[in-house]
Design brief:
Layout: H1 2-19, H2 24-41, H3 54-65, H4 70-78, H5 81-84, H6 89-95, H7 98-106, H8 111-119, H9 126-143, H10 145-160, H11 167-187, H12 191-205, H13 207-241, E1 248-251, H14 256-266, E2 277-283, H15 286-299, E3 302-309, E4 322-328, E5 331-339, H16 340-348, H17 352-355, H18 364-381, H19 388-399, E6 403-408, E7 413-417, H20 422-429, H21 431-435, E8 437-442, E9 445-447, E10 458-463, H22 484-495, H23 499-517, H24 524-530, H25 536-544, H26 550-559, E11 567-570, E12 572-575, E13 581-585, E14 591-594, E15 606-610, E16 615-620, H27 624-627, H28 633-636, E17 639-641, E18 643-644, E19 650-662, H29 667-677, E20 681-689, E21 695-704, H30 707-718, E22 723-728
Parallel strand pairs: 2-5, 6-10, 14-16
Antiparallel strand pairs: 1-2, 3-4, 4-5, 6-7, 8-9, 8-10, 11-19, 12-13, 13-18, 15-16, 15-17, 19-21, 19-22, 20-21
Helix pairs in contact: 1-2, 1-3, 2-4, 3-4, 3-10, 4-7, 4-10, 6-7, 7-9, 9-10, 9-18, 9-19, 10-11, 10-12, 11-12, 12-13, 13-14, 18-19, 20-22, 23-25, 23-26, 26-30
Length: 750
């Protein structure tokens, strides 16, 4: 009887909501769907003990709170019918409408997929099943956004009642929620839903972290309240005195999951919560936001490089706001300025399409952004019809992850996954532009093809109709391609090569790699044997088709020669006061001692001070003992920049290189910066002018730790703009300049 009362009470809430905004005929459809679903689910109960029907009823009520239409609410009531009862989709269509049936189908699990698989006598792995489910969900979503909204609220209610499931099922559900549903909610701007999905998932997966961070945030909120009251009053009074009426000032603490993720990145304890006060200032229109920003920067000094304008450049999930950080009364204060309307959109995103229908809140611009998002999903899902899983990966990684916005030379905006490169950009514009990409200019300057683009960059792709993709693009460690979409497009090009052409190109690739390694005389047949191929032609074919990547080839070849030549130890052992041993790099042969005052540990930025007794003391860069005399010349010339090494000392090979380049300003600086970023020590470097104008040969000696390390560095040097060729000095040859030496034939896939 208790369950019956609960069911009626919930139904009354649903009907009270729908009665407030839907016409009589549409309310009648919802009541019919309610009775139909209640009858078909019968007395079936959930693990929590409630009638199962309370689940679809709760999902429908969530939708009604945001004023969704009658077909969506009806579909929410019916969404488990096709899966859990004998009722067919055709019956739902006959009883209600094709629109309702289509929505129900979009949120129904893939029983038909598993049936088809069974008929074909194959087994579908859990990963295949998940990808097939996601593919269907995403395809349905691009047809009708209401599908994924129902699915998101379905998952939200499941997470709110997850305690009724087994521990193993809870863990699986929480992991899937973080991987799939929270990113979907984020991209649709449903910030409130996203935050709750993440928080409840974290509570299941990391209960200690969740409870610790929650307690710290609650304590921090209480501590910050007095400061917030002062700041709030000051902002309202100051902006009001300057003709800017403030609608509200709110505290805006980070979500528990956001804090958890930041602490994980920093490898910090869960009590080390950022204590910066965060506030949101609400005004009436965008111009007031910009004006208020100027006044706030006049009131308190701005912290450099801590400003973002998401009003003029709206984020991919419809979010708009100005972000700045100021120095207020001795501490940093993070301020967000937005209009009241922007604040409403920031919380519910695409739900504003129904919640604020026929109002200025849901504008044509918002609708266009949502349509562009669905277009990206569609193109990603269809990236490779023969491999449906790749389409799901592309959609999840390339579209649902963090995005940047860059611009074509004509000013057209293009959304890319964060970390996207010029090649990713080219393939996103058009497959042929990616295939024919030769070089790129970013903000009118030459730009390496394997360097990540930044928000706001303007990108120009230089192409050649005779060009083709490079196999090295497919090596993820080299950074040329970061999106699944671009990677699949490039692979498709290689797989369409004829056998003869693949063999011809594969042979050229092998010759190029051997020249780069300084091993031009290696037997091709012997190399084929290393990979289990019957002959060199099979090796060439797999290289040409990109089934075997050049970098994998070179690493394997080099492994057999790695112990030849000169080497030296990298890293020195130092013991902390508690006996823990660490490896310090760049310390030379000096004896080491850890500063007892600052007690540095891995991940700290460290510097060494060479004492008069020739012992090198390791300090944190911020150590007060070290910094007391740091400005004096007698101290400064004794400082060494140090780094943390691996768990054990390693041996580095000393590798001499020739690099043939066309000279340009900044090239040598880019080369040395690359070595610094990859933690490679340059033992020797010089430039020799060649005979032809503008051509130089750069001689280098590098300390490299492994065959894979060496191959990555060689290819990354070759990727720099104006580098013609890179080659190791062949064995048995002195490392001396040779201005008369002709460059080897450099493989250029054209």
């Amino acid at each position: 009887m208790t369950h019956r009362k609960l069911e009626i009470a919930d139904a009354e809430q649903l009907f009270a909501l729908t009665n407030s905004y839907l016409p009589t005929a549409e309310r009648a459809q919802i009541e019919k769907a309610y009775e139909f679903a209640r009858r078909e689910h019968g007395t079936e109960r959930r693990n929590t003990g409630e009638l199962f029907f309370t689940h679809p009823l709760a999902v429908a009520t969530y939708l009604a709170e945001y004023r969704l239409d009658a077909p969506a609410i009806s579909a929410a009531l019916l969404h488990d019918i096709a899966e859990d009862t004998p009722i067919l989709l055709s019956q739902i269509e006959d009883e209600f409408s094709a629109e309702v049936a289509q929505l129900v189908d979009g949120v129904t699990k893939l029983k038909e997929v598993t049936r088809r698989v069974a008929k074909e006598s194959t087994r579908m792995s859990p990963l295949d099943l998940k990808q097939a489910t996601l593919r269907k969900l995403m395809l349905a979503m691009t047809v009708d956004v209401r599908t994924v909204i129902i699915k998101l609220f379905d998952r939200l209610h499941n997470m709110r009642t997850i305690h009724g499931m087994s521990a193993q099922s809870q863990k699986a559900k929480a992991e899937e929620t973080l991987a799939v549903y929270a990113p979907l909610a984020y991209r649709l701007g449903m910030w409130q839903v996203k935050g709750e999905l993440e928080g409840r998932s974290l509570e299941v997966l990391q209960p200690h972290a969740f409870e610790t961070i929650q307690a710290e945030l609650e304590r921090l909120f209480r501590v910050q309240e007095p400061l917030f009251d002062v700041v709030r009053t000051r902002i309202i009074d100051y902006l009001g005195a300057n003709g800017l009426p403030v609608r509200d000032v709110k505290m805006a603490p980070e979500s528990i999951y956001t804090v958890f993720r930041d602490l994980e990145k920093q490898d910090a304890g869960y009590r080390e919560v950022d204590r910066m006060l965060r506030i949101t200032v609400l005004l009436d229109d965008p111009i007031q936001c910009y004006t208020a920003l100027g006044h706030i920067h006049h009131l308190w000094p701005a912290v450099p490089n801590h400003f973002d304008d998401y009003i003029s450049v709206r984020r991919e999930n419809l979010y708009q706001s100005l972000h700045t950080t100021v120095q207020a009364d001795g501490q940093h204060l993070k301020v967000r300025l937005r209009t009241v309307d922007m604040d409403l959109i920031a919380q519910i995103g695409v739900l504003a399409r129904w919640k604020y229908a026929k109002t200025p809140l849901w504008s044509a611009g918002l609708a266009e952004r949502v349509e562009a998002f669905f277009a990206s999903i569609s193109s990603s899902i269809g990236v490779d019809p023969q491999d449906p899983g790749s389409g799901v990966r592309s959609a999840m990684e390339d579209v649902l992850g963090e995005q940047i916005r860059v611009y074509s030379k004509d000013g057209d905006a293009v959304d890319l996954a964060q970390g996207g490169t010029p090649i990713d950009f080219a393939y996103r514009i058009h497959s042929e532009l990616g295939n024919q990409c030769l070089e790129a200019q970013v903000n009118d300057l030459p730009f390496p093809l394997n360097r990540p683009l930044r928000n706001g960059d303007q990108v120009r792709i230089c192409k050649n109709a005779r060009a083709q993709p490079m196999r090295a693009w497919l090596d993820e460690d080299l950074g040329y391609i970061t999106t699944t979409y671009a990677r699949m497009r490039a692979r498709r090009w290689f797989r369409r090569l004829s056998e003869d052409e693949a063999i011809r190109q594969g042979r050229d690739i092998l010759l190029h790699e051997l020249t780069m390694l300084g091993l031009p005389d290696q037997s091709h047949e012997a190399i084929a044997g290393l990979f289990g191929y019957e002959d060199a032609d099979e090796l060439y074919y797999n290289l040409g088709r990109a089934e075997l990547l050049p970098t994998v080839l070179s690493t394997r070849i080099l492994s057999g020669h790695w112990t030849e030549g000169d080497s030296l130890p990298v890293g020195s052992v130092v013991a902390a006061a508690d006996g823990t041993r660490y490896i310090i790099t760049n310390a030379g042969s000096h004896r080491l001692h850890i500063c007892a005052t600052c007690d540095p540990r891995p991940r700290d930025s460290i510097v060494g001070y060479l004492r008069l007794d020739n012992i090198l003391t390791v300090h944190r860069d911020t150590c007060r003992t070290l910094n007391a005399g740091r400005g004096r010349p007698e101290v400064s010339h004794r400082l060494l920049k140090l780094g943390w090494g691996e768990t054990e000392p390693q041996q580095a090979r000393i590798i001499p290189l020739y690099v043939d380049v066309y000279d340009r300003p900044g090239l040598l600086n880019e080369m040395t910066r690359l070595m610094r970023e990859k933690d490679v020590n340059i033992r020797h470097i010089c430039t020799i002018e060649r005979k032809r104008d503008g051509e130089l040969m750069i001689e280098m000696e590098l300390e490299l730790l492994s065959p894979r390390h060496m191959v990555r560095i060689l290819h990354q040097i070759e990727a720099l703009v104006n580098v013609k060729a890179v080659r190791c000095v062949p064995e048995g040859r002195e490392n001396g300049h040779d201005p008369g030496r002709q460059s080897p034939t450099n493989y250029k896939p054209e």
